[in-house]
Amino acid sequence: MIFEGLSDKLQNAFSKLRSKGKLTESDVKTVMREVKMALLEADVNYKVVKDFVKTVQERCVGEDVMKSLTPAQMVIKIVNDELTKLMGDVQSKITFSQQPPTIIMMVGLQGAGKTTTSGKLGGYLKKQGKLPLLVACDIYRPAAITQLKVVGEKLEIPVFEMGDKQSPVNIAKASIEFAKSNKHDVVIIDTAGRLHVDEILMQELKDIQSSVKPQEILLVVDSMTGQDAVNVSESFNEALGIDGVVLTKLDGDTRGGAALSIRAVTNKPIKFVGMGEKLDNLEPFYPDRMASRILG
Ligand code: GDP
């Protein structure tokens, strides 16, 4: 379960406060040292942890926590507030275009879960009454087109493909025309990924971006890769200006470092999380619920 270790450690740290009547500044410092260690062990970005601890500590001293009759609860509330803020405060939704179709471009490294997530997102939006179209722009991985078609069939969502002989830009452009004439109000473009961030990949994505002008560029990253996911997010954001992140494989992530760092490092919100391999295992990301989960 995500945040398992972090939850245990935080609860342990706070339980020591509970036994105390009033707190001293040094009690707060001691507990914050434990919070810091717990966050670092959860693989949260170092600078994010440093800033977080500083803010919480300042608030604890500033808000008369030490004079309070229930100081432990106040400390926990402040940590809860700041964890929520760290993850973006409120849920960030997809922006839909005033003039359909809304174009959503899915980007990310190979294996992050891009194709699966494109399907999942299509299914999610279909349930909300949209008429999505999935577009196969990954022409390099032979199985990618087939994989998207299989996903589309399962979800009963049409898949637009032109094989692997056309350029991704041409496929993307043609898909928009197809969407317009077939009343699709959302177009989800599954782009190619590579094993590492490289110039060729970014250039291709930039070309697609400038030719179809998507409302949303969603970066798909694997939460199990921890700080690598954060670095990948920074690179994609610098190159393309992403609109949000989908954090996949959260079902297998016990630490949660990416979930806690991405927003603070990139200033871009996590919009959805992948919670399993099944096509309905996609959930909107709620920072406040995540924070409550961490604090148990
Ligand atoms: P792509 O190369 O980025 O298109 O990645 P795929 O969509 O092919 O996914 C790679 C693998 O990750 C597949 O085996 C997926 O089933 C799996 N996967 C994707 N999202 C999730 C998730 O949220 N949880 C789990 N457990 N597996 C996932």
From TrEMBL:
Domain of life: Bacteria
GO cellular component: signal recognition particle
Gene Ontology biological process terms in this record: SRP-dependent cotranslational protein targeting to membrane
GO function term, MF aspect, one: 7S RNA binding
Protein EC: 3.6.5.4
Chain sites annotated for binding GTP: 108-115, 190-194, 248-251
Alphabetic keyword roster: Cytoplasm, GTP-binding, Hydrolase, Nucleotide-binding, Ribonucleoprotein, RNA-binding, Signal recognition particle
Catalytic activity: GTP + H2O = GDP + phosphate + H(+)
Domain SRP54-type proteins GTP-binding: residue ranges: 269-282
Region forming the signal peptide: none
Predominant localisation class: cytoplasm
Localization: Cytoplasm
Biological role stated in the UniProt entry: Involved in targeting and insertion of nascent membrane proteins into the cytoplasmic membrane. Binds to the hydrophobic signal sequence of the ribosome-nascent chain (RNC) as it emerges from the ribosomes. The SRP-RNC complex is then targeted to the cytoplasmic membrane where it interacts with the SRP receptor FtsY.
This protein's domain notes: Composed of three domains: the N-terminal N domain, which is responsible for interactions with the ribosome, the central G domain, which binds GTP, and the C-terminal M domain, which binds the RNA and the signal sequence of the RNC.
Quaternary structure and partners: Part of the signal recognition particle protein translocation system, which is composed of SRP and FtsY.
Family: Belongs to the GTP-binding SRP family. SRP54 subfamily.
Protein's name in the database: Signal recognition particle protein
Source species: Peptostreptococcus porci
Gene this protein is translated from: ffh
Parent-protein residues present: 1 to 296 of 452
